[in-house]
Amino acid sequence: MPAPPIVQFEWQGRNAEAPLPSVASSSGPIAVADIDGDGQLDLFVGGRVISGRWPEAPSSRIYRNHSGQWTLDGPNTKALENAGLVSSALFTDLDGDGWPELVLACEWGPIRMFRNQNGTLHEETGQCGLAQFTGWWNGVAVGDFDGDGKLDIVASNWGLNSPYHATEQHPVRIYYGDLSGRGSVDLFEATFDPELRDWAPLWIRDVLASSLVWIAEKYPSYKAYSEASAESMLGERLGRANFARINRSTIVRIDQVKELQSTEHGDHAVVLQDGTRFSLSRNLRGSLERFAPQSP
Prior knowledge:
globular; 20 strands; 6 helices; mainly beta; four-stranded antiparallel sheet
């Protein structure tokens, strides 16, 4: 079933139309900029979620503006195929060369940066030092926060008022995929258990068994359940799963059960630019958190 369309409003004529084709995934943030330097604003449409398939990655797209007509930009859209669950987006000229970069805040992923080289986007999240800041990011903005003439990034995270507590050493994980053989996406969340010295399921046995019925069969007692690690529980189902992790809140695909990890605690972040790389500002982040909400 197609997701709701992107609607374009013409205020002078008071008209509304849906100029873009429908896609299977729900659209999230949009951002506009003259990507190719032709004097016309082009459009980024972020993929937010696939209905019934979270946290599988939806599709994000770039559309070029040709005299008011939107056409899919195939090469730049392909560069976005691993963007993931996009929560917020903006175009900004980070390097001052006159070509706007694309910056994305991603849930179960990093703050992503796509360098604009003469109208062609190339992901440089890793090269610029942002790949390590994985989180449940839900907002992003830029400004020169340290007065050095370079644009820095501020990103809002999920917050601290939640059952998820991730660190770089002990990220939060989620395994997802068809874990029960029903053709649907099942979820298995895990956090680090210091007593087990391993990752254990986040939820108690009865809660998890309500969606994964084989858990109760495999672990008939609460004691057996409490002594098992997440991966020992999944066993052979790991071959059908994807995996993602959050250290600040990352998405790493492993064949089919996928695992996501988050390590960024849910903290908000200010990352400062030093030439071509970004680094986390502990001082500015501390100042931000005194005024920012403790939850989304």
